[in-house]
Amino acid sequence: MNRTELADFLRRSRARVRPADVGLPEGPRRRTPGLRREEVAQVSGMSADYYMRLEQARSPQPSTQMLAALARALRLTDDGRDHLYLLAGHRPPAGPVAGEEIGPTLRYLLEQMPDTPMQITSDLGDLLAQNAAAEALFGCACTLEGEYRNIAWAWFTGARVREAFRPEDWEQASRCHVADLRAAVARRGDAASAALVGRLLAHSAEFAELWAEHEVRVRRSTVLRLRHPQVGEVELAAETLLTPAEDQRVLIFTPVPGSDSGGALAALRAIGEEHLALSTI
Predict the structure, then answer these.
(1) Measured distance CA(195)–CA(226) in Å, rounded
(2) Helix intervals (H) in 145-249
(3) Are 67 and 85 a contacting pair, CB within 8 Å?
(4) Which residue among 23, 99, 192, 269 is least crowded, i.e. fewest CB within 10 A of its CB?
């Protein structure tokens, strides 16, 4: 808890809120801008003495319930609320969620990078969208439709998915899937994540064994060695970009420097263009 910064943030945030913003009368002889300390205490439902100690940097750590009330009273934005929680030594509440809705900016990004494989997934590993380059590259391993839409489910229950990767990479990939899913489930704590884990535990002994180890590791970057049926082995650096919505990610796949994978991706593009040309005849 950073008491000094918290006190300063509260004072300055209080000064930016007018009484009318929170349903209070302006009143006579108001010499300072914004709300008075006792008004913040009144609106947030705490004692004036406790709020005064917060602004004087001599209070105990406030609870998350108290911080939520302060955020509402001070009309903080989501970013301001998160800052308040962090200064008070608490984890901010979960951010906005998008579900399966892909925003126009992300769809535009997919369309404007046709030569670079890109996917948009949920934090649980549901494949929500991908561009043509990703479809050509990963069509042998995962799909936007059917039971293999979830990447973790496909990995642990679909034999054909693993055939696209080197056997010596399977164990590390399995651990990565489980550790990343563990982190997502802890963030969410909802029925959808519990249902997915329950299905995996019931259908995969390997998943159950790894899940019991309680490893946690958010997938940010990794190297994939994919054995493509048309162009052979492709070695890719995979980078994960987090979106403002906590439940969506953008995955970008680029050739590993020094590998021949750039040529393999070019060959895939050529195959796709040839198929497109034939389909229009």
Answers:
(1) 29
(2) 151-157, 159-162, 170-188, 191-203, 205-211
(3) yes
(4) 23
Q: Which tokens in the block code for residue 224?
A: 């994939």
| Paired tokens of 95 | 């951010």
C-alpha torsion 63→65→68→69, nearest 10? -110
Closest CA to 178 of 224, 140, 209, 142: 209
> For the residues of 48-103, what is the DSSP string, one character each?
HHHHHHHHTT-PPPPPHHHHHHHHHHTT--HHHHHHHHHHTT-PPPP----TTPPP
pTM: 0.75
CB-neighbour burial class of residue 235 (10 A; exposed 0-12, middle 13-18, buried 19+): middle
Taking the alpha carbons of 257, 263, 267, 272 in that order, is the dihedral positive or negative? positive
Which one, of 151, 175, 166, 161, lies nearest residue 234 by Cα?
166
Tell me the per-residue pLDDT of 213-266, one tens digit each, with 9 for 90 and over: 999 988 888 898 988 888 888 899 999 987 777 788 899 999 888 888 888 888
Angle between helices 78-87 and 64-73 in degrees, nearest 10? 140
DSSP conformational letter for 146: S
Three-class SS state of 158: coil
